[in-house]
Design a protein that fits this description.
Elements: E1 5-9, H1 14-25, E2 31-34, H2 42-47, E3 56-59, E4 62-65, H3 67-77, H4 89-112, H5 118-139, H6 152-157, H7 164-171, H8 175-178, H9 180-190, H10 193-196, H11 202-218
Parallel strand pairs: 1-2
Antiparallel strand pairs: 1-3, 3-4
């Protein structure tokens, strides 16, 4: 069932980090291939000809694209190890809802912080923090979003914690004061080897965000 597993990814991508953590949770070995997104490889264009983005999981020569779909695929294929999604259909649907919320609300709001105009940045910061507070409400007093066990929603959100340092330095966002439950949850996740060993250096992420923001603003 394992077969050949290859992951096409790029640097500090939070979306690729989801896949790395999911594979680590399953104890899967894989070959990691770094992509230069300014000069996409023939392999990436062949494996993901429609979207042309990373991450792409190649399992026995067959590509699986889009990060949340890849994580679900990993959970279904290697289903004898550390389930990531709940077995109950309703709870599984709820987990998918909140993972989708991360992509459509949390991530989208975080990108609005990059706006060149100060008033737009401030509105973006407000919206971003509101989405994180919504996630805090869903987390409640549970150690993880799924309860006692680290799982699908945690994997969906925790990669974006790697960007917090950049936003704190560049935009003066005090996450500890604004979202204490999210910070406590993130630190709990970081105690897991499957997360910590795959996490990028936050200072390198800061450099990446700062450089990318300059390009986006000047474009």
């Amino acid at each position: 069932m394992a077969g050949e597993v290859v992951l096409l990814n790029s640097g500090p991508s939070p979306f690729a980090l989801r896949v790395k953590i999911a594979l680590a949770e399953k104890g899967m070995k894989y070959e990691s291939k770094e992509e230069d997104l300014s000069n996409k490889s023939p392999l990436l264009l062949e494996m993901n000809p429609i979207i042309k983005k990373i991450p792409v999981l190649i399992h026995n020569g067959k590509p699986v694209c889009e990060p949340l779909i890849i994580v679900q695929y990993i959970d279904e294929v290697w289903n004898d190890k550390s389930p990531l999604l709940p077995s109950d259909p309703y709870q599984r649907a709820q987990a998918r809802f909140w993972a989708d919320f991360v992509d459509k609300k949390v991530y989208v709001a975080s990108r609005k912080v990059w706006r060149p105009k100060v008033e737009e940045q401030e509105e973006g910061k407000k919206e971003y923090l509101e989405t994180l507070k919504t996630m805090e409400g869903e987390l409640g007093d549970k150690p993880y979003f799924g309860g006692e066990n680290f799982g699908y929603v945690d994997i969906s959100l925790i990669p974006f914690y790697s960007w917090f340092h950049a936003y704190k330095v560049l935009d003066n966002i005090n996450f500890e004061a604004e979202c204490p439950k999210i910070i406590a949850w993130a630190k709990r996740c970081m105690q897991k080897q499957t997360v910590a060993k795959n996490f990028p250096d936050q200072k390198k992420v800061y450099e990446f965000v700062a450089q990318t923001r300059k390009k986006d603003i000047s474009a």
